[in-house]
Amino acid sequence: MLHPSPNPAVSRWTGLGGSLALSALIDLNQPAQAHQVQTGGSVGATLHLEPNDTPRAQEDTLIWLALTQRGGRVIPLEDCDCTLRIYQGNTLLAQPYLQPITAEGYQDIPSATVVFPAVGTYTLVIEGRPVNAAEFEPFELDYTVTVAAAAPVSPQTTGTPETGAIIDPEAPAPPPRPDATVPSALTVALGVAAVSGLMIWVLAKLRG
């Protein structure tokens, strides 16, 4: 199911005539290395993943597929009973709901937003058949997608704009500063001694 065997209709795309037909399905202004293109029967599909065809694990990835008939006519999602399946190895991970999107000049093509669970290689399979009197051959195409590691997250820092100081939440709190408004023990002792001396001097004067 993931790798359908070749058939005569597919092989017709590989010759010179197929090359000319395929060129009608691909926007020549798009970078050749960016999107993956597969063909089957009379249908070609261009796969694109955001951002920049470089999906990352644990991040939202927008997938869209531009479906075109031989000759370049776009197949909108409303004319295709389409199913997208995502595999890792032989394990079916997801069958996301498809929604129409307009991207890079393609109108109302199928798309889905997914989150790949981990780094690795995945297989995306798009299957479709015509509806609403559309005329194209049923197809099943598969793509190999490599998912990279998530982008590193910068450590959060806090501090005033003037200093930009980094505060480590694991560091012990600094000792509190002494309150200047509270007298120290030495100050109190000196004050008591001074008052006592003054009282003794006054009593001595009175007795004299």
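the 2nd protein, sequnce then structure:
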Amino acid sequence: MAKFIKNDVKIKVLGICGSPRKNANTEFLLDQALDAAKSVDPKNVVVEAYSIAGKEYFPCISCFSCSKTGECVRSKKDDFNELRDKWVEADAIIMAVPVYHLSIPGQLKCFIDRLGNSIWSYEGSAGKHLKVYGAIAQGVHIFSGQENAIKEIINHAIVMGNIVTSGDPWESYLGGAGWTESRTEKNALKNLYESRSFDAEIAVKSAKSLGRRVAELALIIKAGVLHYIDYLKNDPMYRPLIERMKKR
């Protein structure tokens, strides 16, 4: 077995803001989660925030060209590859979304569809990525689909061979969640939190505990992978995981 060296356990947490609006309520909660993730081990946890605002993601057209090359034929005309490469490199993903029609925004769904097809249909990319996933959703109304949006992200994470965690109960059962008390302005959640709104405080608390647990679990998984790497490298299903470890 490979000897475990503590200094080798460095992880990257990618926060994906799935809101088409810049500097809005979803990003506020994501920032809370990333700050908490970084605080777990500032030396060994690297965090990066990525917003889909202003980006373009065409829908999958089911042409199956990616099964031959691993590349989406539409990626030269939009921003797909930029986010795909960041996703591949990350050890953990925190995906935060506003609720759109009881689910996630269409732009992010287009990215997920193409990510799944291009990663899973190409030889060498399919398998166990074992990224740690956390989900955050916020909406205008208190019962507007936050849990359903979170479950969409969870389903995506599992299909891609990853591990899902939540924050701490009772504030976080499936992930981080909040609502803007029927306010639609971009800074509604921030203002509510600063004014000591109970619900906004709970939303922030759920996001922070989620970020912390995501980082902790990613560190634990990487330590375990480094310890058992000689065993894992013999199983082709762990190829994506091993390749990521080699690059870190």
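The beta strands are 11-17, 45-51, 92-98, 132-139, 163-164, 176-179. The first strand starts at residue 11 and ends at 17.
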